[in-house]
Amino acid sequence: MSIVILGVFAADCAFRGQRLPSMGETVLGEGFALGPGGKGSNQAVAASRAGGDVHFVTRLGRDIFADMARDVWGQAGVTPHVTEDADSYTGAAFIYVNADSGDNAIIVAPGAGGQLSPADIDAHAALIGGAAVFVTQLEQPMEAAHRALQLARDGGARTILNPAPAAEIPDAMLALCDVITPNESEAEILTGIAVASVDDAKRAADALLDRGVGAAIITLGENGALYRDRDTTLHVAAIRAGAVVETTGAGDAFNGGFAAALARGDSPADAVRFGNATAALSVTRAGAAASMPDGHEIVALLSRQG
């Protein structure tokens, strides 16, 4: 069963250090890495490595970062569906990683991916409409995501929106989402409810259900994830796979693993648990796409949990 993901590729320029500089200040870093990223691309890599048949729809420039994108998709088994844009550039991201905690702060310049339009989506209508599971985020223009969700829904796909970066989303678009997957801060921006506990997450999920989504998954970091639809509430505990190296890409790992599990027919509870395990493994490694685990690693971690 195919998974189609719409999103952006960005080359991640990751700097490790003790703190971000203030305006006008220069600080010495403790490390640097250049690697593949972008939320949609990361999710495609995660879903494919987790065992999914993944197709990725995006735009790229004609430059060295586009070559990087094609290489990483080829290695992960992702089938790309790319519109090339010679007048733009392939996306890039600045990532600051705190050397002590592994937490991160990110600036993304989507480049060609930021030019994705409803016309680009219509050019891939048959692919999107034929998906078993469709996933998108908000790094590309919202109009493109909205059109793709409509085509996927019309074709009978299970639709997943990862609302990142957080933005105001019209109710008509939320009504096309079988599942929405915000983290705590994204849930607060969408609902106005500060999420500091599982009970807060339940209230935020209810607010999203009231706006038309089929189910909400609020990812809670070390507190796992809350799944809530109109009939079921599940708090799925986090899984620990080892020491945290950095959290870049953890949300993308969750979404990719979750999509792969749904596509093969797992229940929501099992799919959330699979997503948690995918994310748990990813944070034990540096990088975004480079940190995504293989399916056998995820299954082995779950089997050790009992």
Low-confidence stretches: none
Please give the CATH architecture: 3-Layer(aba) Sandwich
What is the CATH C level class, in words? Alpha Beta
Query: Structural class from helices and strands?
Result: alpha/beta
Biggest pleated-sheet summary? 9 strands, mixed
Order of the strands making up the biggest sheet: 5-4-1-8-9-10-11-12-13
| Separation of the first and last Cα atoms | 28 Å
CATH topology: UDP-N-acetylmuramoyl-L-alanine:D-glutamate ligase
Tally of discrete structural domains:
1
What string gives the helices and strands in order?
EEEHEHEEEHHEHEHEHHEEEHHH
| CATH superfamily heading | Ribokinase
Rounded Rg: 18 Å
- Tell the overall outline: globular
Q: How many runs of DSSP E, i.e. beta strands?
A: 13
Q: Helix amount, in percent?
A: 25-40%
Q: How many individual helices?
A: 11
Instruction: Work out the strand percent.
Output: 15-25%
Average of pLDDT: 94
Please specify the SSE layout and strand pairing.
Layout: E1 2-6, E2 10-17, E3 31-37, H1 39-49, E4 53-60, H2 64-76, E5 79-84, E6 90-98, E7 104-111, H3 118-123, H4 125-129, E8 133-136, H5 142-155, E9 158-161, H6 171-174, E10 179-180, H7 184-191, H8 198-210, E11 215-219, E12 225-229, E13 233-236, H9 250-263, H10 268-282, H11 295-305
Parallel strand pairs: 1-4, 1-8, 2-6, 4-5, 8-9, 9-10, 10-11
Antiparallel strand pairs: 2-3, 6-7, 11-12, 12-13
Helix pairs in contact: 1-2, 1-9, 7-8, 9-10, 10-11
